[in-house]
Specification:
This protein has 825 residues and is an alpha/beta fold. The chain has 23 helices and 23 strands. Strands 10-11-12-8-13-14 form a six-stranded mixed sheet, with helices on both faces. It is flat.
């Protein structure tokens, strides 16, 4: 019997369960597995990953899946992690389509199965739990297998749940929904209960007669009969004891009443009691028989329990993702560079949020490592968000590799790490009498020993807790050691020496959390590419420190450092100005798009009114033509009877038929006109983007939009937003496009929205071959979000094309998960 892995990934194929005695060994197995995978448990605690799992577990339905959620760990390899993410995506689509789907009725059967294996009879309630769990497994399996085309991964999980034959039917036949053993559970029980009913009626009839007959009526304390020790008795006054012959079973507290079983009903009581014992024995025999059936199928029942727990965990991941407003990250393998230590890491998290902070209040950040970098040095004020940023990256990496969608925008990408290490916060160890600094160093020594190029290392305040000069030197040495080893590293620091090191070291980039000098509060925005500024003097001035003291302080600072700080201030101001200009441009674009949509809607309404008027006129004309045609027919008949020539009537008839052909044509809807360039755009045309006021070159064409190269940026714009410039077309496309000319017949995107699966498959199949043959370097596939069926079909097709180098979701403002961009080799 294999143990149930509470945190096992869905790709494993374990059967059986962990009972109470096996639970400890199961946990040891999990710890051993994770140790072999080198995922540092201390880092998980430091990054607060268990708190994420605790919130995930709240979405589970029963205790087995709750334990699996709390024991969840990152997958062992990238394929397993991608599968988990895909399962979560399918579950989100399933819950959107069928909100009530779930594992309702499932119970933790591990104690009951353990008792069954030991031969202990299960109670009726426990057997009902077995039945409810198997029914839940059967119902969910049927639902998922019926929808296999839409949810293939979930259907595959459901197919792994065995359905023990006969168990549910046997329990249903024997036990009612209220937990009572039914008469037809066995022929013997039915006969016993029939005889028991007859014996009970006889006994009650005899007792009822005694209440009104001598000598009992006059001796009764009150005219009732009751039970003592399971036998019917009469309440006789103590002074009348001699008048009633029988067996005394009890007396009242005062001694005034004796509870006597008359001799005349002793035999009837005996018969009734014997039948009760026979009933109880037969019920026990039935429960033992059902227990033996459960024991026989215990392995299959355990496997069904495990399958239900895994599916409930997948559904919990989907519910948690909806709560976080999360998206599936794209996990990418590390691709080490052959010409240096660069591990080939990808880190692009857009609008990333810490999953444990209030989503309504937390400030999102774009956290991105440029392709040439693999080490990020973050500087900035205390409480400015440095630690939160570090934890956000670490947590999102762990969540993605565990199959959890992450609180970040669609299109976010992150590499798959074999292990994650972190040193954050106060690691002081009282038991070992270590200082804060010693605690950090002990942890760092362990990290350096185990980390490699497939690891992510996170350090908060590297080198803190000791002399600043020595601490800065040590921090720089440690960082340089990690950089030379090619380990992806994120560091938060106050040391200016690390800013200088990051600025001049290949593979390392500065970043800063911003500070608002007006409010004297951090903004929590992360800026990659610029180091943090020293705000001490500016803050002191804002708080009222005298100019004399400030000037004296400035005189003690190296002029070169002051000049560098002033230059850094200018760069930050220019970047802020550019950011605001970009926001204004984006807002203008949104306003223009909203206005265009409003105008288009108005034109559509006008077109609807035009069609309605013309359609009314067409119907009226048709009615008049029908009447005229009838009259012409009558005239023709009259002329024929009078033997008059029919030439004039024939001409009228032909004219009517011509008009009839015209009237029969339905009114055609006209396309809403758009303001577009004077002629069809061609590759290389120079255009002006009206909403941005910028010049660009056309590098791609689709049905509704053009792809442009605007300076160093690529952008997409509707034709209505473009103005063709009176300049000669570019002889060559931008460098990334090469010299390949794009045929007019092949667009740079294809839309599958609203199509049936088969039609979309055929269209995409033909388009990909044509796009690749035409020399396109990339193509946009618009499949929409919906249930995800077309998306999964498209991505599956891309996986099987050997000329496709990679594919990603579009950026949020370009369609997000509703658009996949494929890059050709």
């Amino acid at each position: 019997m294999k143990p149930l892995h509470n945190g096992a990934p869905s790709e494993t194929n374990h059967t059986g369960i962990c009972n109470a005695q096996q639970l400890g060994s199961c946990k040891k197995a999990h710890m051993l597995r994770d140790t072999l995978r080198r995922m540092d448990e201390k880092a998980l605690q430091t990054l607060e990953f268990p708190k994420v799992l605790e919130r995930l577990a709240r979405h589970t339905v029963f205790s087995v899946s709750q334990e699996r959620a709390e024991a969840l760990r990152p997958a062992a390899d990238i394929d397993a992690a991608r599968r988990r993410l895909a399962e979560t995506g399918e579950a989100r689509a399933l819950l959107e389509d069928q909100p009530k789907v779930g594992v309702g009725g499932a119970r933790d059967l591990r104690p009951a199965l353990g008792n069954a294996r030991r031969g202990m009879a299960l109670t009726a309630a426990e057997l009902l739990d077995v039945k409810g769990t198997l029914v839940a497994a059967r119902t969910l399996a049927r639902q998922l297998q019926d929808a296999e085309a839409s949810y293939p991964l979930l259907a595959e999980l459901a197919a792994q749940m065995p359905q023990p034959v006969g168990v549910v039917d046997a329990i249903t036949k024997a036990i009612s929904e209220r937990g009572q053993i039914l008469d037809n559970a066995s022929e013997q029980l039915a006969q016993i209960r029939s005889e028991l009913g007859v014996a009970h009626e006889r006994l009650l009839g005899r007792m009822q007669k005694m209440l009104s007959s001598d000598p009992y009526a006059k001796a009764l304390q009150e005219p009732i009969f009751t039970q003592r020790d399971g036998r019917y008795v009469l309440p006789i006054r103590a002074e009348e004891r001699g008048r009633v012959k029988g067996v005394v079973h009890d007396q009242s507290a005062s001694g005034a009443t004796l509870f006597i079983e008359p001799l005349s009903v002793v035999e009837l009581n005996n018969t009734w009691r014997e039948l009760q014992l026979a009933e109880r024995e037969e019920e026990r025999r039935i429960l033992l028989a059902l227990t033996a059936l459960v024991q026989t199928h215990s392995e299959a029942i355990g496997a069904a329990l495990e399958g239900l727990a895994e599916l409930d965990l997948v559904l919990a991941r989907a519910k948690y993702a909806e709560q976080l407003r999360a998206h599936a990250p794209e996990l990418l393998p590390l691709r080490p560079h052959v010409d240096g230590p660069h591990p080939g890491v990808t880190l692009r998290l857009f609008d990333a949020r810490h999953p444990l902070l209030d989503p309504e209040r937390v400030v999102s950040s774009d956290i991105e490592l440029f392709p040439e970098n693999y080490c990020l040095v973050i500087t900035g004020p205390n409480t400015g968000g440095k630690t939160v940023t570090l934890k956000t990256v670490g947590l999102l990496a762990l969540m993605g590799q565990s199959g959890l969608h992450i609180p970040a925008a669609a299109g976010s990408q992150i590499s798959f790490f074999e292990s994650v290490y972190a040193d954050i916060g106060d690691e002081q160890s009282i038991e070992q009498s270590l200082s804060t600094f010693s605690g950090h160093i002990t942890n760092i020594v362990s990290i350096l020993k185990h980390a490699n190029k497939r690891s992510l290392v996170i350090f908060d305040e590297l080198g803190a807790g000791t002399d600043p000069q020595e601490g800065a030197a040590l921090a720089r040495a440690l960082l340089d050691h990690l950089v030379r080893r090619g380990i992806t590293t994120l560091v938060a620091t106050h040391y200016p020496e690390l800013k200088v090191y990051a600025q001049g070291t290949k593979g390392v980039v500065n970043a800063s959390v911003e500070f608002d000098l007006k409010t004297l509060a951090p903004t929590y925005h992360l800026t990659v590419g610029l180091p943090g500024r020293s705000n001490a003097l500016a803050i002191a001035k804002r708080l009222g420190l005298s100019d004399e003291v400030l000037e004296q302080a400035r005189s003690g600072i190296d002029p070169a450092d002051l000049k560098a700080e002033d230059l850094l201030d200018d760069i930050h101001r220019e970047r802020e100005r550019a950011r605001r200009a970009h926001e204004r441009a984006a807002e203008a674009e949104r306003s223009a798009e909203a206005l265009r949509a409003e105008l288009a809607e108005r034109l559509e309404l006008i077109e609807d009114e035009r069609i309605e008027v013309l359609e009314t006129a067409r119907k009226q004309a048709k009615q008049e033509l029908d009447a005229l045609k009838t009259q012409a027919g009558r005239l023709r008949a009259d002329l024929a009877r009078q033997r008059e020539p029919l030439d004039k009537v024939q001409a009228v008839k032909q004219a009517i038929e011509a008009l009839e052909d015209t009237v029969e044509e339905p009114v055609q809807r006209q396309a809403v006109p758009e303001s577009a360039p004077g002629r069809a755009l061609r590759l290389g045309d120079a255009v002006r983007v009206r909403s941005l006021g910028a010049r660009g070159v056309v590098i791609g064409l689709s049905e509704e939009e053009a792809e442009l190269q605007v300076g160093a940026l690529r952008a997409r714009a509707r034709y209505t937003d473009l103005e063709l410039l009176d300049e000669p077309a570019s002889e060559s496309l931008p460098d990334w496009q090469g010299t390949v000319q794009l045929p007019d017949a092949v667009a740079s995107e294809v839309s599958l929205r609203g199509m049936r699966f088969e039609d979309a498959y055929n269209k995409l199949d033909a388009y990909l071959d044509a796009a690749y043959a035409s020399g396109l370097r990339s193509a946009r596939i618009i499949h929409g979000k919906g249930t995800g069926t077309l998306r999964e079909m498209a991505r599956d097709m891309l996986r099987k094309r050997n000329y496709v180098e990679r594919y990603v979701f579009a950026n949020p403002h370009e369609g997000g998960e509703g658009v996949t961009i494929a890059y050709f080799k």
